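Recall that a protein's primary structure is simply its ordered list of amino acids. Everything else, from secondary elements to tertiary packing, is in principle encoded there. The following example makes that idea concrete.
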Amino acid sequence: MATKKGRRGRKPAGQKKNGASSVNKSEAVRDQLRRDPDAKPKAISAALAEQGIKVEPAYVSIIKTKFKTAPNGQGRRGRGRGGKVDIDNLLVAKRFAEQMGGVDQARQALDVLDRLR
């Protein structure tokens, strides 16, 4: 059976060369990101290369950026409860600030906690 060819005698986009595997590189990158979300693009590229999947670190960066963004365009990390602040949350924050010795100390503690995530 003859292979169809597009204009200028080339195979249309999406057709594989003889013997090419059907590995989805984007999905392979996402799998690596699920295993280690904090991994650098070079590390992910190297890990996939060991599995026989050649992916450039720049491509990994693109997939990683899209992976961290939810489908609605908002980042996955956000404010709890949709960003709404009610009186109960304010009272809890006030007690926390008092326990920490003031608002500045509470902010510093929260900044350290954020870096630990």
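The mean pLDDT is 79. The chain is about 50% helix and 0% strand.
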